[in-house]
Design a protein that fits this description.
The chain is α/β, with parallel strands linked by helices. It has twelve helices and ten strands.
């Protein structure tokens, strides 16, 4: 078995590029290197510059590669479709020119990946984690979103980048029925799945069960942990997903409620080989504790048998 742990800028609170409190991208790469990572995600579009020379220089300085790029935007509105394609082209033109990561025996597809996440809808953001309250797309809206996702996937494939669809709390691909519908509507030859243990739990699903259930489509995995007390408090409030994260709903891995020895056993049972990225969403105004928390997560995962 071969599973390597990577990092993501969201551990430093980087989710919205318009947030005025974001740490610099060079600091994030520096601290990711200090945490012992050899790979990190690109983060949301516009955080790292679309500049091969500048990004390559900082990655090399910190001993890093890029494991994945990210589309984190409105996948539903047809008026946003051209913007999504432009983001895809920019991201793919960058990540395909950076040093690649090794391919593990049995890994479904080589890196770098393109994680595709829906975002930007108040009615779903405030319903994150509440399947029974969250509105669903009409059949026509769902069909339009699927068409947009397929277009993104085809554009990424032109660059040789493997797209992976990431169910995300607060978006229109979150709950069990929506993941099952994605599996029916997006052929595996077009895109795989990136399942996130923390989002699965947050949205009412058992991570172990769903990793096993989606094994044949699982190309990439995200790890996070959930502070049960804060999570339950947040679910009782009318609150946006990232506001809940700002209150501490996500915590260092090994400090929360998720069963990571059980998750490792499940990944071994399904023969998962490849890369796993740690995430811990937070308010970027608290990023002074990011390196400490990332190191705690890394130390814990190494203690139960994962490799950096």
């Amino acid at each position: 078995m071969g599973m390597n742990i990577c990092g993501a800028p969201c551990c430093w609170g980087v989710d919205d590029v318009k947030n005025p409190y974001l740490p610099s991208w060079k600091r994030v790469l520096k601290e990711a290197g200090e945490a012992g990572y050899r790979a990190i995600e690109l983060g949301p579009y516009g955080y790292l510059p679309i500049d091969v020379e500048a990004v390559s220089k900082e990655l090399d300085k910190n001993g890093l590669s890029i494991v994945a790029g990210t589309i984190f935007d409105d996948l539903v509105d047809k008026r946003n479709y051209e913007n999504l394609l432009r983001q895809t082209e920019d991201i793919c033109s960058l990540i395909t020119k950076l040093p690649p990561l090794p391919v593990h025996k049995g890994q479904h597809y080589p890196t770098p990946y393109m994680t595709i996440m829906d975002w930007g809808h108040d009615e779903r953001d405030y319903a994150a984690g509440h399947s029974h309250k969250a509105p669903r797309l009409s059949d026509e809206q769902w069909s339009g979103m699927i068409s947009h996702i397929k277009g993104i996937c085809k554009k990424a494939a032109e660059y040789g980048v493997r797209p992976v669809i990431h169910p995300h709390a607060g978006g229109y691909i979150e709950f069990a029925d929506e993941i099952e519908r994605i599996l029916r509507d997006i052929p595996y030859e077009l895109a795989g799945l990136c399942l996130d243990t923390g989002h699965l739990y947050y949205s009412g699903m058992d991570p172990v069960e769903w990793l096993k259930k989606c094994a044949s489509n699982l190309d990439y995995v995200h790890f996070k942990d959930v502070d049960e007390k804060v999570y339950r408090e947040v679910l009782g409030e009318r609150i946006r997903f990232f506001e809940g994260c700002g209150k501490g709903a996500m915590c260092p891995i090994g400090k929360g409620t998720l069963d990571y020895p059980g998750i490792k056993e499940a990944l071994e049972q399904i023969g998962y080989n490849g890369y796993i990225t740690i995430e811990q969403e937070r308010d970027p105004r608290n990023s002074d504790t990011s390196l400490r928390d990332v190191k705690e997560s890394v130390t814990y995962l190494k203690s139960v048998g994962y490799e950096i």
